[in-house]
Amino acid sequence: MSKLSTHNEIQESPRNASAARFTLNNSQLASWRSEFYSLPLNRLAQNVCTASDPIKACLRQDARTWAIPGKMRHELDSGIKATVEGPNWMCSGLDLLRLAMKKDCELSVPYLIYWHKLERCNYVLNSVVQLLEQCEPLEGRTFQYLMKHTVPDNGNWQMFVNLVRKYGIMPKVCYLASWSSSRTLHLNKMLRSKLHEFSSQLHAQFTFDGDASNCHSMITPMMEELYRIINICLGTPPLQFKWSFKNEQTVQSFTAMSFYQCWVAPYYNLDAQICLGHDPRHSASYQRNYCIAYSSNMIDGLQQSYNNQSMDVLLEIMVASLAAGSAVWIACDLHTIFNAKSEILSLELHNFDQVFGMNLGMELDKAQRMLYKGTRRNTALILTEVTLDALQQPLQFRTIARAKESDKKTKSHTSLQLSAMAETETEAKTESSKRKTPKGSRTALNVDWLREYAFEIVVDSRFVPPGVLHAAQTQPSVELPVWDPMGALLS
Question: Global pTM?
Fold first, then answer.
């Protein structure tokens, strides 16, 4: 009875004698319990962490007052707040375009979501046929990955470029958010269900024919059904719209492509942007180009690709870009043990040793964490500021200002889309005036944190050293599997 009061009795009845050496037993548990409660600090830490978030309990309370001893700062005079109401990879891409525009207006994220869903469905069905032609088994890892990630909201830089190149962009008020564009779970379930059904039909046809001769002709009627679902849930984007910027009396008629070509393309060249990654694993080589298989959202579209470089090279290029007034797109890991909601991201932000008596999160280096699934890219951010020390070395970067929670609330899609054109123009001008002075918070990313959790940047090729640019343009590309951590889709 005394043993039961100390611990729940563990029945030691292993299947064989050798296994008995590795099972937890009452003697071990009693020893660990005695040692744990012999330290008063463990009791204190237990009281704190059972009543609150243990990660926040380790947060240094003086973190917000930390001062970066920088001697110089380069900051973009953006005048805008970060785009919200959609996946980060889309919002950050649109923010780059907005920063380049001579006249600012919020751009429609739901418009890109619409085309992303439609194109991704077509891409998945054609990829299924391609895998069948390659004799990929249904239990194969690539096929299973594709079936699990049929129509994800997540994406990458190349997916964003594919959408803008083919479909252009439009102001936010010309194609507003619907219920399903803000809450894509149910739409994704319906699309996934049909894609699984259609994939099964394609496999059956391939098995019957012995080749894919009839499979491609089956995709068109399948896509018509998927098109119907997407249109019903998201609404159909307008073929043309009328628009005028603030303080302008002239109302012009645009298509999404003509709007992009008129207001963005002359000031921001998508073709001039270059993707540089940092993969420190022994299997990866610096100066080498890599691409991720099945990482696109469009047939004949770009797949995710990057030139692998050391973090020192990436930091040098990031500083050069920001010093010239050009923002930096960056893919990083915000789902770390370090608090992603903090306004400062630093490896020194938490004191785990003080609470748990051990170090947490930094015992493995970046390459080891990638191998053991401890880290991967998952979020895209826009950097608009850098602080340098006396030797012109970067100390800290800052993101574009985030919108307040009250700014993230959207109005009903139906009521706004049915409003008259005059009302739409008035609303657009009102919103534009509100955005004149951004007051949202900004996230600071210290260089020590970036070295461990940054994976990819997109910058203008003007700021890339000639040697790096030459490697990116001439080196052969090595294809990585779709499940590689460097190909993880961004939220």
Answer: 0.88
